[in-house]
Design goal:
Elements: H1 2-38, H2 41-55, H3 69-84, H4 88-91, H5 97-103, H6 114-135, H7 143-169, H8 176-210
Helix pairs in contact: 1-8, 3-6, 6-7, 7-8
């Protein structure tokens, strides 16, 4: 067992260095792309349009008294429909073997099970923003919505970490010990994805029961 632990330690160090190089390269490319976008004429046109809109608020005389409840209700309905499409029954189980198997496949495409959860995360944020606009400073704090949002944030971070580990493991001529360490990391993060889905399922079920 001692040589195996030693190989895992060496593989983990090399895997960490590989991930650091890839993430540094990705940050550099993103920084360059952002600088190019900021200096583009398209960005300046968008900024000018935003400045014009800001100077003309409210857009209509009736904007201050407009009833925002239908729009807030529509945001909540979109969220409810998106959650209804999630496999919450599967999320209630402690282990989803299909999710792990797909992540270890040679297919570099994003995990097919993750996209609907990412969409729910965005819709949940939209719903929370709508509540804040509708109620202002007197908006009641819904602890269950906060817990659901935190679970989905964990889900996003873990799924992206797992994807980064899987992508790094596909590096040509990678050492077996490094590939093994990346596989362990990938499996750990996919389990974290499942834990986050379970946490969301628990918080969402509580919210549903607590709604009159």
């Amino acid at each position: 067992a001692t040589p195996e632990r030693g190989n895992l330690t060496v593989g983990a160090a090399k895997a960490g260095a590989l991930l650091e190089r890839q993430l540094t390269l990705a940050r550099t490319r993103a920084h360059s792309s952002a600088l190019q976008a900021i200096g583009s004429s398209r960005f300046h046109a968008v900024a000018d349009n935003i400045a014009v809109l800001a100077s003309e608020v409210p857009l209509t005389p009736a904007a201050a008294t407009a009833d925002l409840r239908p729009l807030a209700g529509a945001a909540e309905e979109r969220l409810t429909d998106a959650v209804a499409a999630l496999p919450l029954v599967t999320a209630g189980n402690p282990y989803n073997a299909e999710a792990l198997i797909h992540g270890l496949s040679p297919d570099p495409a994003p995990h097919p099970q993750d996209a609907p959860w990412h969409q729910v995360r965005l819709l949940l944020r939209l719903h929370r923003y709508a509540r804040e606009v509708l109620h202002g400073d007197s908006a009641p704090v819904d602890v269950r919505l906060l817990a659901a949002g935190q679970a989905l944030n964990r889900h996003r971070d873990a799924s992206e970490a797992a994807a980064a580990a899987a992508q790094a493991a596909r590096t040509p001529r990678i050492a077996p010990a490094t590939a093994y360490a990346l596989g362990v990391l990938h499996a750990d993060q996919r389990h974290e994805v499942e834990a986050a889905r379970f946490a969301f399922q628990q918080s969402w079920q509580m919210q549903t029961v607590g709604t009159p």
